[in-house]
Amino acid sequence: MIKCAIFDLDGTLADTSVDLGRGAAYVLEQFGREAKWTDADYRKFVGNGAKKLIERAFENTLSENELNKALDMFKVKYNEILLDNVVVYDGIKEELDKIKEQGIKLAVVTNKPHKSAVKMVEALFGKDYFDMITGAHEDVPKKPDPTTTNKTLFELGIKPTEAIFFGDSDVDVQTAKNAGIEAVGCSWGFRSFECLLAAAPSAIIDEPKYISKLC
Questions:
Q1: In a 3-state reduction of DSSP, which class is residue 10?
Q2: Which of 98, 213, 114 is nearest to 164 (CA)?
Q3: pLDDT over 90 (residue 180)
Q4: What phi and psi, each to the nearest 5 degrees, are found at residue 126?
Q5: For residue 183, what are the β-bridge partners?
Q6: pTM to 2 decimals?
Q7: What is the distance between the alpha carbons of residues 18 and 20, in angstroms, rounded to a whole number?
Q8: Peptide bond into 144 cis (omega under 30)
Q9: pLDDT tens digits, residue range 33-65?
Q10: How far apart are the first and last CA of the chain?
Q11: Which value, in Å, is the radius of gyration of the alpha carbons in the chain?
């Protein structure tokens, strides 16, 4: 019996790619680099946290000190613009409402920095809509490491066998597997169907309307 549905944020609940790209482009320009990437490129760069996004945007050419400086710059800029163009995917809210009506707990586990994640989720869905929001902290391993997912389950009093994890990337599928949770790939997000298929989730869904049918 499913008692908790866990969701990735970027590319699963909401399309955040435009502002993530704008933030990364801003940093590239501050470093005198060409902001040459498209929205499609930035979608491919997202998934392993802000640091990895910046590494990929700079094509892994920064020293550790430069990378840390660029990351700090990105966080400040992105926090200013993170709600400018974000869009909740059609049908998501309706499906989450159905799950909540069934008494199933809702959680977000994301590699987005924790403060930004909380700010975004509460702006899009309302304060306390989700039972728990777990974002990334510098001193905590990021997905696909299961640490943040395990913490979420523990805090909510949920066993892995009582949870289901929805995410748009191979990172999310591997995270769920590492935590012993059933994984569902969401193909409307930032990764291709082929990428999700290669990660071998329990199921792949192409529209949010199937979310409540799996809970």
A1: strand
A2: 213
A3: yes
A4: 100, 150
A5: 165
A6: 0.92
A7: 6
A8: yes
A9: 999 999 889 988 987 888 999 999 999 999 999
A10: 8
A11: 17
CA–CA separation, 208 and 193 (whole Å): 15
Tell me the one-letter amino acid at 75.
K
Burial class (CB in 10 A: 0-12, 13-18, 19+), 139: exposed
132 contacts 152 by C-beta, under 8 angstroms: yes
- Specify the residue for token string 């998501």: 92
The tokens for 65 are: 């000190």
Given a cut of 90, whether residue 138 has pLDDT beyond it is no
Tell me the pLDDT tens digit for each residue of 62-96.
999 999 999 999 999 999 999 999 999 999 999 99
Query: What's the CA gap between 22 and 102, in Å, rounded?
Result: 38
Q: Which residue in 4, 32, 40, 22 sits closest to 134, CA to CA?
A: 4
Structure tokens at 128: 């306390």
Q: Which residues contact 149 (CB under 8 A, 6 or more apart)?
A: 6, 109, 134, 143, 165, 175, 176, 178, 179, 181
State the maximum Cα–Cα separation within the chain, in Å, rounded to a whole number: 54
- Tell me which residue has tokens 């945007």: 57
Element at 160 (helix H, strand E): none
* Torsion (CA) 173, 174, 178, 180 in degrees, nearest 10: 20
